[in-house]
Amino acid sequence: MAGQEGLRARLIVTFYANSRPSNTGPTAVAPSDDSFKSQSTACSMTFSELLAPLVAPASLTLANYRTLAPGVFRSIYTITSPLPRPEKFRHHTSIAAFEALHALEIVFDLVPNSPVSSARPLKLAVFDMDSTLINEEVIDELARSIGITSAVAAITARAMNGDIEFEQSLRERLALLNGVRADVWEDLKKTVTIAPGARELVDYLRERGVMTVVVSGGFAPMASWLKEQLGLDHAFANHLVVSPPTDAFPFLHLSGDLSPEHPIVTPEFKRHVLESLAREHSIPLSEALVVGDGSNDLLMLGAAGLGIAWRAKERVQREAPQRLNGVTLSDLIHLLRGQEDSG
């Protein structure tokens, strides 16, 4: 998006108070734009004044400011070319200082050629599954069923933080699961829990006609179950080999191997799913939302018009285009609503 000439865009800046009611602590009081004062420099300044030099040489005009919900506020700016990338703001030291000073998380979204009052253009939403749409890491739940939780969880944590390659970590963890009963998924479906706000967010997207997709480095039986539970349009995940009964395991069981007949859901494959669906349905990537929490989500987060690292691992919080922490995925609805749809 950077360097596009002759464009006029909306820069949507959404402020989430850390003390908003969906988190913990007292209800935040809605400020006016001028009440956000930065004390990181000798002269106090409004957020608009703080932002202006970061978008230069583009010009910036505050078009609208409003409270969306208790503890959630939004400023909409019109901005002229050359258009910067919104992650430029999110990673700037002055923005980080402002967030820390006011106990806020700020999400930046740049939307070209879109009226100030309209909803954010969106036609495709792609989600990670584990620790995003559901609360658990399914592979850790599988490990718990055979008593090797610590060994598998340690590899999972290293993978999600990006300390080892995702495919390597997946194969290492799966090798430890050799012998798990093939019908274990039925037990997991009774214990896995859908994340708070996931149903509300997906329902909102479906009402708007947005294509919804889960693409997971987890496993196809659980991704397909989640697709049905939430009414998603597509589900992509890893397929495991099921072995026949043996002397050691006299029942159908997982072999600990990935199926060679299906693609492995690597970070590159996740991005491929996003780009392929967008191309197939003539959807600009600028009109795609991606939500995930692990390092294997970073490529697809970076490819989307709005990529949100949700309650993410430390490395992902640092590197993702945008990030948000909270207790309910319905917080993301505030990023998408138009002026008349707010509240």
Instruction: Kindly report the spatial arrangement of strands forming the biggest sheet.
Output: 7-6-5-10-11-12
Which of globular, elongated, flat, extended, rod-shaped describes the shape? elongated
Q: How far is it from the N-terminal to the C-terminal residue, by CA?
A: 30 Å
What's the helical proportion of residues? Answer: 25-40%
Spans of at least 5 consecutive residues whose pLDDT stays below 50 are 1-6, 24-44
Question: What fraction strand?
Answer: 15-25%
- Calculate the mean pLDDT score and round it: 87
Strand segment tally: 12
Instruction: Determine the structural class based on helices, strands and strand pairing.
Output: alpha/beta
Number of helices: 13
Biggest β-sheet description: 6 strands, parallel
> What's the gyration radius in Å?
22 Å
Spell out the helices and strands N to C.
Answer: EHEEHHEEHHHHHHEHEEEHEHEHE
Describe the structure.
The protein is built from 13 helices and 12 strands. By secondary structure, it is α/β, with parallel strands linked by helices. It has a 6-stranded parallel beta sheet with strand order 7-6-5-10-11-12, sandwiched between helices. The longest helix has 14 residues. The radius of gyration is 22 Å and the shape is elongated.
